[in-house]
Design brief:
The structure is a single chain. By secondary structure, the chain is of the alpha+beta class. It has a domain of 195 residues: Peptidoglycan recognition protein-like (Lysozyme-like, 3-Layer(aba) Sandwich), CATH 3.40.80. It has 13 helices and 23 strands. Strands 1, 2, 3, 4, 5, 6, 7, 8 and 12 form a 9-stranded antiparallel sheet that branches.
């Protein structure tokens, strides 16, 4: 009995000792269950620098204190800024204001402190009003919409300083504010000259008056968060050969009939790898339907199949009062040997356009780069077609690694939606320096999704942005090649020649007035539709070779 009791107590103690291990999982299990941290936005108001000693904290030289850069310009009475040496980690910065229609006539500068590291030099935030929804679109006129600068990728940081100097504001050191990113000569007013850094040095007798800054100026600090791991089958759209995928309503744009009937053809058109098959030479073994087939292939006229862009419907029975869809070998009435010339020309144009298609490149989906679908607006807005591909640079800087590209995209996405108030990510596609292509605005990569990328020309176009700034730095050869692959495929779906030209109607901008019918390259730079430096001098130079390569990929 004592032996039995001792053994029972031993079993109970062993179970009790094992119980905590089941309740509190070890570190390995905890890591497996970790939920990815969502992104976040910190918003800091930009206040007058002459108040509350902000001028001293932002511009005081020495040490690692905020603004500890002796080269920082002295503040002017109209300057606004903020000094935040200790904030939650962030990786992207931008400045926004209340009204999207208001212009920021001033120079915006920021410097950041790397997490656990040193302060960066002062850097400028560039204008962004040209990369936006169209002026009369609900997306830009909605209550959530705001004006803003271009965002800047700074990497993981935990301290920031920012200042905004209005145009014409003269500081104690004689420097004057200029438009951010503007041409130095243009931004400097009468009686002023440009300095080497793009600022403007005021003439002693200029007497310029500081421009009014828009209301609600604030600094946005974006943390991209961590993306949850997507299902393997949803992370990337794999590359496909140059065969369009059929849609529910029929052939995809550019579909070509197969030279041979598909296996199991039953007299009806069926979808093979290259599109709809031809009519089967053998009719289906229907129970009672009479068969109407030519006695010899040579007797059947050859022109009707070329005349029709789509396979004809099944022929009606002889009792039907409707005429046959194309001349039959048994027809008793005379038929013309060729279709009318105008029909021939139209069908030849369609056939030629359908001939040219390009393979679909590999595309990282929104799930693949970790887009938070809960922050965007539901639903989508579409155009009727895609006539032009506008090429952009994101002006977010070039200091990112390819492994960081998804984080950069998540940051820009959050800035577009949460800070600027847009319905979704602005660009339709984005390409990183390693040539990887990412799905942008949601709605379907094969569809004519209306984006927010080229003010005045977002309808019937698509926006392709290369991550980086290419005003003085050349884009990588991989990125340029990816532009050609992407545009060849997407424009081929809508039967566009990459080396051709077309017309778009302007929705209004600083280069073309609203309603103007503008001739554009099918592959165009942003500056072709708007007076802007985008996509950067060095990227814009590459567009000629992009058009040539894209046309070759289409088989032209």
């Amino acid at each position: 009995m004592r032996a039995y009791l001792a053994s029972s107590i031993g079993v109970a103690c062993t179970a009790a000792l094992a119980l905590p291990l089941a309740i509190y999982p070890g570190p390995a299990h905890a890591r497996a269950e970790r939920i990815a941290a969502p992104g976040s936005t910190q918003s800091l108001p930009l206040l007058p620098l002459a108040a509350d000693g902000l001028d001293r904290s932002v511009t005081a030289p020495g040490g690692d204190a905020p603004g500890g850069d002796a080269s920082a310009p002295a503040p002017a009475p109209a300057d606004r800024g903020v000094a935040a040496p200790h904030v939650r980690p962030f990786s992207l910065v931008g400045v926004v204001w209340d009204q999207p229609s208001a212009d920021l006539r001033g120079r915006v500068q920021v410097r950041t402190r790397a997490a656990g590291g040193a302060w960066s030099p002062w850097r400028e935030l560039l204008p962004y009003g040209d990369e936006a929804p169209d002026p009369d679109s609900p997306e830009l006129r909605g209550v959530r919409a705001h004006g803003g600068t271009a965002p800047l990728w700074v990497g993981e940081s935990d301290g920031v300083q920012a200042r905004v100097r209005p145009e014409g504001a003269v500081a104690a050191d004689g420097s004057a504010g200029g438009g951010a990113g503007a041409d130095p000569g243009a931004s400097a007013g009468a009686g002023a000259s440009a300095d080497a850094d793009g600022g403007a040095v005021a003439d002693a007798g200029a007497g310029a008056r500081a421009a009014a800054l828009p209301s609600g100026l604030r600094l946005e600090l974006i943390d991209p968060g961590e993306a949850p791991a997507p299902p393997p089958d949803r992370a990337v759209l794999r590359a496909l050969p140059a065969h369009p995928v059929p849609t529910a309503g029929g052939a995809a744009p550019g579909a070509r009939p197969s030279a041979r009937p598909s296996a199991g053809s039953s007299g009806k058109p069926s979808w093979g790898p290259s599109g709809p098959s031809r009519w089967s030479a053998r009719p289906s073994p229907g129970p009672s339907r009479p068969s109407i087939r030519p006695s010899k292939p040579s007797v059947r006229p050859s022109w009707p199949s070329r005349w029709s862009a789509k396979p004809s419907a099944p022929r009606p029975s002889r009792s039907s009062a409707e005429p046959l869809p194309y001349p039959s070998a048994h027809a008793t009435h005379a038929t013309p040997s060729t279709p009318p010339p105008d029909v021939l020309a139209e069908e030849a144009t369609k056939a030629n356009a359908a001939r040219y298609s390009a393979p679909r490149p590999s595309i990282v989906t929104r799930a693949g780069w970790g887009a938070d679908e809960k922050i965007r607006e539901t639903g989508h807005v579409y155009s009727k077609t895609v006539k032009v591909a506008f090429i952009h640079h994101t002006v977010t800087g070039n200091k990112y690694s390819c492994s960081q590209a998804p984080s950069v995209l998540r940051s820009i996405y959050r800035y577009h939606v949460k800070s600027l108030g847009w319905r979704d990510y602005g660009y339709n596609f984005t390409i990183d320096k390693c040539g990887k292509i990412y799905e942008g605005r949601s709605g379907g990569v094969t569809k004519a999704v209306r984006g927010a990328h080229t003010l005045g020309f977002n309808t019937n176009s698509m926006g392709v942005a290369v991550l980086g700034t290419f005003s003085t730095k050349k884009p990588s050869a991989k990125a340029v090649k990816a532009i050609a692959k992407l545009t060849a495929w997407k424009l081929g779906l809508f039967k566009r020649n990459p080396r051709g030209t077309t017309h778009l109607v302007s929705g209004g901008g600083n280069k073309y007035k609203k309603g103007a019918n503008v001739k554009l390259h099918v592959i165009a730079g942003h500056r072709d539709g708007f007076a802007t430096e985008c996509p950067g001098k060095d990227l814009y130079k590459k567009l000629g070779s992009v058009r040539k390569t894209a046309a070759r990929l289409q088989g032209r």
